[in-house]
Amino acid sequence: MKHVLEIEELTVTFRTENGDVRPVDDISFAVRPGETVCIVGESGSGKSVTSLAILNLLGKGGEIGPGRIRLAGEQLTEKSGAELRKARGKDAAMIFQEPMTTLNPVLTIGDQLREAIRLHAGLRGKAANAYAAELLREAGIARAEQVLKQYPHSLSGGMRQRVVIAMAIAGKPKLLIADEPTTALDVTVQAQILALLKRLRTDHDTAILLITHDLGVVAEMADRVLVMYAGQIVEETDVFTLFDRPLHPYTRGLMKAVPAISDGPDYRLEAIPGSVPDIGRLPQGCRFHPRCPAAADRCRGEMPTLTPAAPAHLVRCWLAGQSPAS
Ligand SMILES: Nc1ncnc2c1ncn2[C@@H]1O[C@H](COP(=O)(O)OP(=O)(O)OP(=O)(O)O)[C@@H](O)[C@H]1O
């Protein structure tokens, strides 16, 4: 299989009191087996809605269309609710920022893991128990038998996230979707969880779609990066090219907002002025132009398309490559 996930021209519409909004507007990308693709962008750029759409978890008022989502070679957009639930967990599983979104506070870790195992691995009884302990060890939990008897609240945030990862891998999914999985954790624990995700990728060839606003996490984890802004992909390339030769003024702005050790203590962070536009009130032309230091007349009137600026380097900017200083 060439791709685990293929998304073509995906648009998500939410019906709101003030009319329809499209937080995800015509995005296409694919993820290969064993590849880690990061989606990066500021808050409100559409990263989470993209990931929820993949597993049909948009909730009330959210609709996919037009667009196609193929997971493990199967067209998800044509599946029924029951078929989709089956695909979730077997082919793809989701890890959220806050582990308590997934964990039930009144059930033991063992109860919850065994349920995930019953659903996604078809095991019960002793076999399920043994597999539950094995999954916890795989997720880096040493005293697995003891943890199986505990409730979520008695565990640290890092341990809870390990449990969630253990549940996510119960069905040996081909794709893990992780939405800011380490944002709620302190730095040391964050590094441990990222190392765990890397190990799962290496040991099982699991593809990872990682959503983050943190370029440090991108540098650590990504093979390929999608930069999102106001519901669109504005740049896509491999991680080395992105850091070496970012072409979109937005990507450059994000990079300037990250301190390097060599900047020293007096360095002033250059955050991008302004904020991501309200999805119900998008500017004409390029959606980034009101914040862009290089915006020209064409940018104010005409929406740029996502086009190759170099092999395997896509960028949505009329001026890409023209002005290295922008
Ligand atoms: N249920 C909903 N109804 C209407 N609009 C929504 C809904 N869910 C999300 N949105 C809007 O979609 C846009 C994108 O949201 P999304 O959560 O995907 O952004 P994000 O890039 O993941 O940011 P964050 O990191 O803050 O989650 C936002 O403007 C948000 O208000």
TrEMBL record:
A Gene Ontology BP annotation from the UniProt entry: peptide transport
Q: Any idea where the ABC transporter domain is? A: 5-255
Tell me which domain of life the UniProt entry assigns to the organism this sequence originates from.
Bacteria
Q: Which CDD domains match?
A: ABC_NikE_OppD_transporters
Q: Name one GO molecular function term.
A: ATP binding
Q: Please report the record's description of how this protein sits within the membrane.
A: Peripheral membrane protein
Q: Where in the cell is it found?
A: Cell membrane
According to its record, what are the GO cellular component terms?
A: plasma membrane
| Cross-referenced SMART domains | AAA
- State the UniProt keywords alphabetically: ATP-binding, Cell membrane, Membrane, Nucleotide-binding, Transport
Q: Which Pfam families match?
A: ABC_tran, oligo_HPY
The UniProt similarity line reads: Belongs to the ABC transporter superfamily.
NCBIfam families recorded for this chain?
A: oligo_HPY
PANTHER family annotated for this entry? DIPEPTIDE TRANSPORT ATP-BINDING PROTEIN DPPD, OLIGOPEPTIDE TRANSPORT ATP-BINDING PROTEIN APPD
- Write the protein's name: Oligopeptide/dipeptide ABC transporter ATP-binding protein
Q: Which organism is it from?
A: Paenibacillus methanolicus
